[in-house]
Design a protein that fits this description.
The complex is a heterotrimer of chains A (249), B (326) and C (306).
Chain A: E1 6-15, E2 18-24, E3 27-28, E4 33-37, H1 44-52, E5 59-64, E6 67-68, H2 74-80, E7 82-85, H3 97-109, H4 123-136, H5 151-164, E8 169-173, H6 181-194, E9 200-203, H7 207-213, E10 216-221, E11 224-229, H8 231-236, H9 238-245
Parallel strand pairs in A: 4-9, 4-10, 7-8, 8-9
Antiparallel strand pairs in A: 1-2, 1-3, 1-5, 5-6, 10-11
Helix pairs in contact in A: 3-4, 3-5, 4-5
Chain B: H1 3-25, H2 29-53, H3 62-81, E1 84-86, E2 92-93, H4 98-120, H5 125-145, E3 155-156, H6 171-194, H7 196-206, H8 208-213, H9 218-244, E4 246-247, H10 254-267, H11 274-292, H12 296-309, H13 314-320
Antiparallel strand pairs in B: 1-2, 3-4
Chain C: H1 3-34, H2 41-59, H3 62-83, H4 93-115, E1 131-134, E2 138-141, H5 142-164, H6 166-176, H7 178-183, H8 188-211, H9 221-235, H10 240-266, H11 271-282, H12 285-296
Antiparallel strand pairs in C: 1-2
Helix pairs in contact in C: 1-5, 1-8, 1-9, 1-10, 2-3, 2-4, 2-8, 2-9, 3-8, 5-6, 9-10, 9-12, 10-11
Classes of the chains: A alpha/beta (249), B mainly alpha (326), C mainly alpha (306).
Chain lengths: 249, 326, 306
């Protein structure tokens, strides 16, 4: 088995009496899509926040590329190649679509301390940004103000900004949220090809997408991972059916 | 050309034309008035970098303005009394040379911005506003109670400082110096806005979480913005002190901070020429209404309220419409 | 320095601390409930002082003057809330700063227009004009002692209001969840006006009480406002307890720094320059305290941790 790219070991986090993460150990291996599913309030967002460095765990650790990054800041983890997308789009709404993509490219270049050059005339930044927009199908809208994008287009831009980082792993927080059936299908096809570039830790509510994409699924309930396995194993797992898939299956 | 570009060009031409008009109409005081407006605009361009681009609501920019002023006052007062500023471990003499004074003013106010920024950027939002206001007050009281440089009474300079090749005592020549500095600062602002740094800073104002997620530290971007901002406002302070040949703690007061912010807001936050329009309007209002009523600031207050409650985008926004991209 | 002198200075520090608390409590309450930063709080302090001085001048009664201060500041607060402030709740901090800065200009110039530029004087009431001998032989002005008493009473009153009354429950609910409280059928806009008027009344009370030991003049409010901001930064925004502890810390540091630092400097230099540089550094003491708290706990001693 290949070394995991990203792994958590016994992550725990409590908010008062609420145990949001309870000894979570999961890993993400090269080339795979690992989906995290679970009912609302299961602690998926808390888990992502800890993996990406927005929240410090009470106990446990996060390893990325074989290195303990538990105490590192969000920006340090990003600089190592951990790219995330946000559940509710976190984009600079006043800026253009291209400028948002350029920001990602700028972050990846690690050289923001240039005060006189023009960002949009920097060939390497621009190439990176445009390639990412092209990949998600937003190239034609590059000069549009981000606030004018539709909800679905903003979701695409979220993914594009993550792409500009050319990361070693993606962490995606409900990328399908609010997309119509058509949009979900298109994004599903896109993510399917993306795993060859870097593995994806995918938190998602859209079960069609999860079952179509995931190599492995972990089920999170009340802050605990109650099962991890292939799509088939999870479908058959009685505990999961009970706790979560009950009505659907 | 967009409407905003037309407006900017018109404002710039007006500033260039002022001395000509003043000579023609035989109203030499107008030049002094315009110099005042240009210097205020320079200070406000400084604040606009922190406030407009960086989203840092600093109510303490008088600190930088005042430090610039005192840099001029202290250096020039030592020069005019022929005493050394410092004799140990090495001798530092005062100076009447503007370029040296500017350099010291920018360096000192940038350093102050670095220290204040390091402390106040540990927080954000309302805390940041309160803390910058508090540090401003600290410098104000320090200047009042430190007797070496005039304390509450301030420092007077007998003769305006010199610039090689110019006679700075001629109002029009000093105006020229100030206008050139304003143009340089505006050029810098325009370049910053489109630079990689400006791109990242703009994003840090809107979505700090995103900036972190692409591997950049929003706080560091904001700190650098504050240092640049403080340096420019400090330069304006040195020029202002030279204009009046006088520096006093009032340059460090919270009212001064408020006024610099008012220039930016009534002109238009994050608009290139917003500070110019705002400072020009303020000086004009002060001159016109000040002659009519002793209590002209009531009208200023009412106007400000109207701008906040009803007019988005300040004067530039009202005339030129919404901000374009880039 | 004698222990008696030191004890007196400690009492002075407490006295200025509790007066600061009256200001800071209102500010922090208004921020906690409405999310508003109010620069014009110092103007309400000034309104209280002027109302008290005017009424005391007319009637000669200090008690009536206090009542007038409370009423005038609360009325001014309610009026400003109805006309201007309530349009600011949904706006960002920058707009709030600007609009309340505009209010300062209007209040200050308006007061100058009404009362002129010369300071007014408010006399300490006859009954409190003497000194009280405290245990240990400390003779201390009765009026200042009364101020400490008033401050403690207000602190207790606020605690009672917050913990034991229906209004307190609503205020706490308003801090936590605006929609929730509206859903409970509480008229949120009335609650906001009430909270703002309460904060204003506290500021007006402080202005009147302090006005009797200092002069009553335009611009008296803003230095106190900025000190109250220092208090809030130290104590933590939204916390009444933080405001109390912070106010006492600031009051004591300011007063004791002004006395002790020149003494300390005397150990190193000649008395004249020690007095000068000592008082210059003493003027910075509370801001250094604030900086230290910021390094240690950026959200203040009792603030919610970010």
């Amino acid at each position: 088995m290949a070394e995991p790219v990203l792994a958590t070991h016994g992550l725990s986090k409590a908010f008062g009496a609420l145990q949001a993460s309870d000894g979570i150990s999961i890993d993400l291996r090269p080339g795979e899509i690992h989906a995290i599913i679970g009912p609302n309030g299961a602690g998926k967002s808390t888990l992502i926040a800890q993996i990406c460095g927005a929240l410090a765990p009470d106990a446990g650790r996060v390893e990325f590329l074989g290195r303990d990054v538990t105490r590192e800041s969000t920006e340090a983890r990003a600089a190592r190649g951990l790219a995330r997308t946000f559940q509710t789009s976190a984009l600079a709404m006043e800026d253009t679509v291209l400028q948002n993509a350029l920001l990602g490219a700028l972050g990846a270049s690690g050289r923001p301390w240039r005060f006189f050059a023009r960002a949009d005339r920097d060939a390497s930044l621009r190439a990176r940004a445009e390639a990412a927009l092209e990949a998600v199908g937003l190239a034609d809208l590059a000069e549009l103000r981000t606030a004018e994008l539709s909800h679905g287009q903003r979701r695409q831009l979220e993914v594009a900004v993550a792409l500009t980082l050319a990361p070693k792993a993606f962490v995606m927080d409900e990328p399908m949220a609010g997309l119509g059936q058509e949009g979900s299908k298109r994004l599903t096809g896109f993510l399917d090809g993306l795993r060859a570039q870097a593995p994806i830790l995918l938190v998602e509510h859209d079960m069609d997408a999860v079952f179509a994409l995931a190599d492995r699924i972990s089920v999170l309930v009340y802050g605990k991972v109650i099962a991890t396995g292939s799509v088939e194993e999870i479908r058959r797992d009685p505990q999961v059916r009970d706790a979560y898939l009950g009505e659907e299956a | 050309m967009s409407r905003e570009s037309w407006l900017n060009t018109a404002l710039l031409l007006a500033l260039v034309a002022v001395p000509g008009w003043a000579l023609w109409a035989d109203e030499p005081f107008t030049i002094t008035l315009a110099t005042r407006a240009v210097i205020f605009a320079l200070a406000a361009v400084g604040l606009n970098i922190a406030l407009g681009m960086g989203g840092l609501v600093s109510l303490g920019h008088a600190v930088f303005f005042g430090i610039g002023g005192y840099a001029m006052g202290i250096l020039a007062s030592h020069a005019q009394t022929y005493t050394a500023l410092m004799e140990w471990p090495f001798v530092i003499e005062g100076t009447k040379s503007m370029p040296v004074i500017w350099l010291v003013a920018v360096a000192a106010s940038s350093c102050a911005a670095l220290v204040i920024g390091l402390l106040s950027l540990r927080t954000s939002g309302v805390y940041f506003i309160m803390i910058t206001l508090a540090f401003g007050q600290m410098m104000y009281f320090f200047a009042i109670s430190w007797p070496a440089y005039g304390g509450e009474d301030g420092l007077s300079i007998y003769v305006r400082n010199g610039f090689p090749g110019l006679n700075t005592l001629v109002p029009i020549q000093f105006y020229g110096i100030c206008l050139v500095w304003l143009c340089i600062a505006l050029l810098l602002y325009a370049r910053l806005m489109r630079s990689p740094f400006g791109l990242a800073l703009n994003a840090a104002r809107q979505v700090p979480a995103r900036v972190r997620a692409v591997g950049l530290d929003p706080r560091r971007l904001q700190l650098v913005a504050l240092v640049i901002s403080g340096g420019i406002t400090g330069l304006a302070g040195a020029l202002f002190a030279d204009l009046n040949r006088f520096v006093s703690p009032s340059m460090l007061s919270w009212q001064m901070s408020g006024e610099i912010m008012v220039f930016v807001i009534i002109g238009g936050v994050a608009r290139l020429f917003g500070p110019v329009a705002g400072a020009g309007f303020y000086v004009l209002l002060e001159h016109l209404l000040g002659g009519v009523s002793e209590f002209w600031q009531i009208f200023l207050g009412l106007f400000l309220l109207a701008v906040v409650l009803f007019g988005k985008g300040g004067l530039v926004g009202m005339i030129a419409g919404r901000r374009g991209n880039g | 320095m004698s222990p008696i002198l030191l004890a007196e200075q400690v009492l002075n520090g407490l006295q200025s601390g509790v007066m600061l608390f009256l200001m800071a409590a209102g500010l922090t309450l208004i921020f906690g409930v409405m999310g508003l930063i109010n620069l014009a709080h110092g103007s309400l302090y000034m309104v209280g002082a002027f109302a008290a001085a005017a009424v005391a001048g007319l009637t000669g009664s200090f008690l009536l003057a206090l009542v007038a201060a409370l009423a005038a500041a609360a009325a001014a607060g309610a009026l400003v809330e109805l006309l201007v402030i309530r349009r600011l709740y949904a706006k960002d901090h920058l707009d709030q700063v600007l609009a309340t800065f505009a209010l300062i200009l209007i209040f200050s110039e308006g007061t100058r227009w009404l009362f002129g530029s010369f300071p007014l004087y408010l006399d300490i009431p006859e009954a409190l004009s003497g000194t009280v001998t405290l245990p240990g032989g400390i003779a201390y002005p009765a009026y200042r002692l009364a101020l400490i008493g008033v401050g403690i009473a207000v602190a207790l009153g606020l605690w009672w209001l917050n913990a034991r009354t229906r209004l307190g429950i609503r205020i706490r609910a308003g801090e936590n969840d605006r929609e929730m409280i509206a859903a409970l059928g509480v008229d949120i806009s009335k609650l906001y006006t009430l909270v703002f008027a309460l904060g204003a009344a506290l500021a007006g009370l402080a202005g009147a009480l302090v006005g009797a030991i200092q002069s009553v003049q335009v611009g008296m409010g803003e230095p106190v406002l900025i000190l109250a901001f220092v208090v809030i930064v130290i104590g933590g925004i939204g916390s009444i307890k933080g405001a109390l502890i912070g106010a006492l810390l600031v009051g004591l540091t300011d007063t004791l720094g002004g006395v002790l630092l020149p003494e300390l400097f005397k150990l190193f230099t000649d008395p004249a320059s020690a007095a000068a540089s000592g008082s210059a550094f003493a003027s910075m003491a509370i801001y250094i305290l604030m900086a230290a708290v910021l390094i240690w706990r950026p959200t203040g001693l009792f603030g919610a941790r970010a």
